[in-house]
Every structure is written in structure tokens, then in C-alpha cells.
Input
Amino acid sequence: MKQAGRRARWWRQWALLGAALALAVSPMGGAVALAEAETIFQQLPARFTLTSGIGGWQCILQIEADGAFTGRYWDEDSGDCAAEYPRGTVYLCGFSGQFAEPEMTGPYSCTMKLARLETAGRPGACYLREGTRWVYVQPWGFEEAETFMLYLPGAEMAGLPQGFLDGSFLSTALETMPEGVYGLYNPAGERAFMGYGEEGAGEAALAASAG
Output
């Protein structure tokens, strides 16, 4: 029952986020080397997530087969309240953009430039609704972003940046990136988005890290 309640609350949050953003603007996994850069987007998971593992925030990124992407960031802070907004503050951002064609740097890694990034709502703008303050912010995970690193299943863990490992929740005790697990890393901001191409890949990877 508790799990169902959390799931329902999660979906309510995203429904509210979608409504708020409307005010601003009208897998294949596997530990295999990818031979051609133009096929990489087609083989990625549909969704990547950036989170700290604690707190009520997360940023979700959806990448299309041509490198175009959309995303949403949500951070709910009930402690950031006042008489005008007793239910707290929600920081949010909807965004979209385009990644350039990936360039392979190894059998299980590549780089791709951020070609375009647009946000819904002016960062810093806010409004009040139903006792909550809504604040538009910059897209989380894209701080000073110019080039992203993409790590594929089979990438050697020992060669990955520490900033990525810290944000991925994967352990260097693993020899390679697990089957079905993909990492998208912004080295400028040291932010790691994780994607899972197979059902249960995320839970299996975290269980292996904990062990």
C-alpha cells in the first residue's frame, strides 16, 4: 500500500509539473561495441534520470532516435514556505534540445556536443497557485554543458571519471558497466544521468554495487 501511495504521489507531481510548464510554452541494451556512431541514439534507453538518491528532486531526460531530447526537472521543498505559500515551493524546468552526432572515443564510449538547449519559462520567474510557490529554474544537469560523455554497457569502470561514478551509484568493484546500463555524463558540471535499457537492469546494478 505504501509503494502504491508513493507511485500515485509521483504521478500527481508530474501531472502538476506538466500543467505548470504549459503556462510557459504552448532499447536495446547489451554489452556490445557499437560500430557506427549514427546508430547509437537508436540503441539508447528512452529515458535517463539524474537524481541524488535522496530528497524529492529528479531530472528526467528523454532522447529520441535523432538525438533530439526533452526533459523535466522537479524539486519540491515543503520547508521553503511563507504565509503566501504555506504548502512550500516547487522548483521546476521543462526543456528541449538537440545532441550533435556522437563521436566514438572507444568501443564503449563516445562524446556528443550539445547543439541546442531551450527552456520553458524564464529562470527566476515565479507565481503562486493553490498555496504553493512555483519557481522556474535552469535545467539541472546541464550546468556549463558543452560536450557530454556517453558510456555504454561494457565500458571499463576503472577508466571512468570519479564524478561520473559518484553520480551513477555504481561501484568500482564492478569491472565493467553492467548489461543494460548506460551513463550520460556532463563533465563540466559533474552530473551523471543514468539510463536502463532492460527491465530490472537498474536494480541489478545497484544490488551489485551494494554487494
About this structure: Residues 21 and 53 are 25 Å apart (CA to CA). The longest strand covers residues 109-120.
